[in-house]
Design a protein that fits this description.
Blueprint (H helix, E strand, L loop, with lengths): L3 E6 L6 H11 L4 E5 L12 H5 L11 H12 L4 E7 L4 E9 L4 E5 L7 H4 L4 E6 L2 H15 L4 H20 L8 E4 L4 H18 L2
Parallel strand pairs: 1-5, 1-6, 2-5, 6-7
Antiparallel strand pairs: 3-4
Helix pairs in contact: 5-6
Length: about 210
C-alpha cells in the first residue's frame, strides 16, 4: 500500500502543528511529518535586512515544485532529504533532514491547498480554522520564543502581509478541504482522523 497523505492547511497559528503532533503521538513510528515551512525559497543573495522585508505569506515565497516532487517520491516509498529553513536568518540552512516513507505522511502549511499539483497528491485535506485573535497571539508567542523576533516586527509583518495574504490566498483554499476543524485541540476531529488512520494501518498489514 502506498503512503496515505494527510494535508493540514489553515492560517499561521491555527493549530496545524499541534494537531499533527497529537496524531503522531497516537501512532508512534507509523507517521512522518513534512512541513511546507521548510520549502520557503532560499534568499542567500539578499542581506538580512532585505530578507526581513519579504512577503512570506504569498504563494511566490515557496518552492512548490520541489515539494510536489518530494511528496511524489514519498508516495512511491522513497525517502527524501527535506530542506531545513532557518527562521532566525530568513533563509534555508545548509542542513537537510531525511523524511521516511512511512504508511502515513502528514504535511502541513498555510498554502498547502493553493497549488493544484500539490492538492492532487493529498488523500485527505483538512483545514484547521481558528479565530484570528487567537492565531495572532499564538504567532506572536512562537516568533518571540522560537524565531528571535520582537513585538514591533511581528505587528508590522502581521498587518503588512500576514493578515491581507490570509484573506487573499489562505482562507479561500478552505473550499478544497474534505473536512474543516475548529483548532488543533479538537478532540472529536482527532478521534475521527485517528480512526481513519487506524483502519488504513490495519488494512496495510492484512
Amino acid at each position: 500500500m502506498k503512503p496515505y497523505i494527510i494535508g493540514l492547511a489553515g492560517g499561521s497559528g491555527s493549530g496545524k502543528s499541534t494537531f499533527a503532533k497529537r496524531l503522531i503521538e497516537r501512532f508512534p513510528g507509523m507517521i512522518s511529518l513534512l512541513s511546507c515551512d521548510n520549502y520557503y525559497l532560499p534568499h542567500d543573495d539578499l542581506s538580512m535586512e532585505e530578507r526581513a522585508t519579504l512577503n512570506y505569506d504569498s504563494p511566490d515565497a515557496f518552492e512548490f515544485s520541489l515539494l510536489v516532487r518530494q511528496l511524489a517520491q514519498l508516495k512511491e516509498g522513497i525517502c527524501v532529504n527535506c530542506p531545513v529553513y532557518d527562521f532566525t536568518k530568513h533563509t534555508r540552512s545548509s542542513e537537510h533532514v531525511e523524511i521516511e516513507a512511512r504508511p502515513v505522511i502528514i504535511i502541513d502549511g498555510i498554502l498547502l491547498f493553493y497549488e493544484e499539483a500539490l492538492r492532487a497528491q493529498i488523500d485527505l485535506k483538512v483545514y484547521v480554522e481558528t479565530d484570528a485573535d487567537e492565531r495572532v497571539l499564538r504567532r506572536a508567542l512562537r516568533d518571540i520564543q522560537e524565531r528571535g523576533r520582537n513585538l514591533n516586527n511581528i505587528i508590522e509583518q502581521y498587518l503588512g502581509t500576514v493578515k491581507p495574504m490570509h484573506s487573499k490566498y489562505v482562507e479561500p483554499t478552505k473550499k478544497y478541504a474534505d473536512i474543516i476543524i475548529n483548532g488543533g485541540l479538537n478532540e472529536v476531529a482527532l478521534d475521527l482522523v485517528s480512526e481513519k488512520v487506524r483502519r488504513l494501518l490495519a488494512a496495510s498489514i492484512r
